[in-house]
Write a structure and sequence with these properties.
Radius of gyration of chain B: 14 Å
Strand content of chain B: under 5%
Distance between the termini of chain A: 14 Å
Radius of gyration of chain A: 12 Å
Helix content of chain B: 25-40%
Strand order of the largest sheet of chain A: 2-1-3-4
Largest sheet of chain A: 4 strands, mixed
Number of domains of chain A: 1
Helix content of chain A: 25-40%
Structural class of chain A: alpha+beta
Shape of chain A: globular
Oligomer: heterodimer
Distance between the termini of chain B: 29 Å
Largest interface: A-B, 23 and 20 residues
């Protein structure tokens, strides 16, 4: 079964854009939250959500099943997604 | 201001200080355009790879070039978002690697 993939991103972040492009090029469906485009209440709630997952908040923060990846790391993504 | 104008302006001021643009020109111009977008959104050039608070005073540390550039370039040969690199990085003496976030997470949890 395909792992669930979610990315917390910033719309202006190049590495976030590269990660989304990587998913598209590899046919990986994913959920994306562009945190900078949220309203203030959603932004704060989302940051708290991320912080529960990982102590240091950086973008992109990528969830692949139970695994968390921070930064654009294509080799790690390939391994976790069995590509 | 256009990305080309910003490129020339920054190149002239930063290179003499030992901070060179990443040779990946596409990467650089995507970042410059993001800086201009943040300038339009927040009235200051917040780092495109960090979440701005829409408060210039609060975000003084991530106004590009951010205060983390110097230690990041010293340690990794490039800054967090890959806009600036060192001469050694350019010469291939330092491998390209992920730069972890140096900014305290507390900066993200003020009361918005």
């Amino acid at each position: 079964m395909d792992k669930q993939v979610k990315i917390y991103a910033l719309s202006t972040c190049i590495y976030c854009q590269n990660t989304k492009a990587f998913f598209r090029q590899n046919g990986v469906s994913y959920e994306c939250v562009d945190v900078d485009l949220l309203d203030e209440a959603e932004k704060t709630a989302t940051l708290r959500e991320i912080r529960k997952l990982v102590p240091s908040i950086a973008f992109p923060t990528i969830l692949i099943g139970d695994e968390i990846v921070q930064g654009y790391k294509p080799d790690v993504l390939r391994k976790l997604l069995n590509l | 201001m256009t990305a080309d104008q910003l490129f020339e302006a920054l190149k002239n001021t930063q290179e003499p200080k030992g901070y060179f643009f990443n040779p990946d020109r596409e990467h650089v111009f995507r970042l410059l355009n993001s800086l201009l977008l943040n300038k339009a959104r927040y009235s200051y050039m917040a780092c495109p790879c960090r979440l701005a608070a829409n408060d210039r005073g609060w975000d003084m540390d991530i106004l590009c070039p951010c205060i983390y550039r110097d230690p990041d370039v010293k340690e990794f040969g490039r800054c967090y978002c890959g806009l600036y690199v060192s001469a050694d990085w350019l010469a291939g003496k330092i491998a390209n690697q992920y730069v972890p976030e140096r900014r305290s997470v507390d900066k993200l949890f003020r009361d918005f």
